[in-house]
Amino acid sequence: MRVALFTAALAAAPVLAYPGMKNTIAEIQARADADGNGPDVEDGSDSSELLGDLVTLDDSQLTAVGKSVKSLLTGGDKPESDAAYITSGRANNLPQKGSPACAADTCCIWKYIANDMTNTFRGKSGRCTDLARAAVRLGFHDAGGWSKFTGDLGGADGSIILSPDEMNRGENRGLEEIVAQTRIWFNQYKQFNIGMADLIQFGANVATVICPLGPRIRTYIGRKDSSQNCPESMLPPVTGSADFLIELFENKTIRPHGLTALIGAHTTSQQRFVDPSRAGDPQDSTPGVWDVKFYKETLGSAPARVFRFASDVVLAKDSRISKEFQAFAGQGGQSHWNEDYAREYIRLSLLGVQNINSLTECTKALPGRTGSFTAPDQAALDKWLATKDRVAKIADELRNGGNISSVINNVFGWLKSIFGFRY
């Protein structure tokens, strides 16, 4: 979020105008000076610590990826990218799976993995599925088992699946289905020398961009796997205080603004285990869509069915979080949040990784992004959101990314005829 240099450059550059440019510059400047202290990075609220081998390597030793990641971690470079393989026509540059050309291109096989993941993560309604949301959570939980005090233990190393005990921990409840699916993909593609740690983080980034409006996060391959359990008590509880949660993430080099961006991933979710009596209830009114309704509805009014996590509420009110939280909820919040989330997830996905300088960027293997979205069943969704009565069939169809119009009309019609149910 170092925009002061950018706005200064605009002032010094030749004038190039396009419709809306004045508003865009004003929005950027407003973001820079929202707290009156200039760029956010200057007030100490943005993450900027280096990670892994980048801490000790001299700039002269850095590869192109090492230089880029170092810049990303310290507030520079662009955390989103639309670089992609061309997969049709004469310009097709994706080698055939299993060919020598594909084997020679580190990223090639990951494009085929992305294709398989896309079919699993995108529902018939266009929303992302429960497995997509779980893939994002799996990425968080694998990487989040690291802090500045755990040494070589934990981090984005695949141990959440490869270790004997991590999936037995209560904090990982609900990940069983995506772990099983990730094992299937791993067994299918391990002949191509892929790693579990990479598969987990790649899956999280594929899932994020499959969710409508989600960012296309720069993605790296080459982590080292570990089957050693990560330390316990490294993940945030939904009942944690603001002080506890902020300290927990600062110990992972993630500062308050970064934490504010990361918790926005709740925008797509439907909780099942925090309150089983309300299983399937979403955390905002657009489950399966990567929008900023989560920020708006955590701060203000929301439909009856929206379930707010206690930890999200206390963070939204904390002075170290609230300004950024409100900025994401305000004008221009979507692009602001996407950029900040992408930058912070890059950091998260590299926690505990000690060979960052030797990674390969494979962003080009990701699916394309969905820049706009209108739910085909919005009217039916609004009906469901306005009630609190639990009808598992509706919640399950929504979790699967399905179009709930026919389901909700059939179920609500039956309830009305039998019980005089109103909607």
UniProtKB/TrEMBL annotation:
Its EC number is 1.11.1.-. GO terms for biological process: cellular response to oxidative stress; hydrogen peroxide catabolic process; response to reactive oxygen species. Its cofactor is Ca(2+); heme b. Disulfide bonds join C107-C362, C128-C211. Residues 155-267 form the Plant heme peroxidase family profile domain. Keywords: Calcium, Disulfide bond, Glycoprotein, Heme, Iron, Metal-binding, Oxidoreductase, Peroxidase, Signal. GO terms for molecular function: heme binding; metal ion binding; peroxidase activity. The active site is at H141. Ca(2+) 1 binds at D142, G155, D157, S159. InterPro entries: Ccp1-like (IPR044831), Haem_peroxidase (IPR002016), Haem_peroxidase_sf (IPR010255), Ligninase (IPR001621), Peroxidases_AS (IPR019794). Heme b binds at H266. PANTHER family: CATALASE-PEROXIDASE, THYLAKOID LUMENAL 29 KDA PROTEIN, CHLOROPLASTIC-RELATED. Belongs to the peroxidase family. Ligninase subfamily. This is Peroxidase. It comes from Colletotrichum sidae.
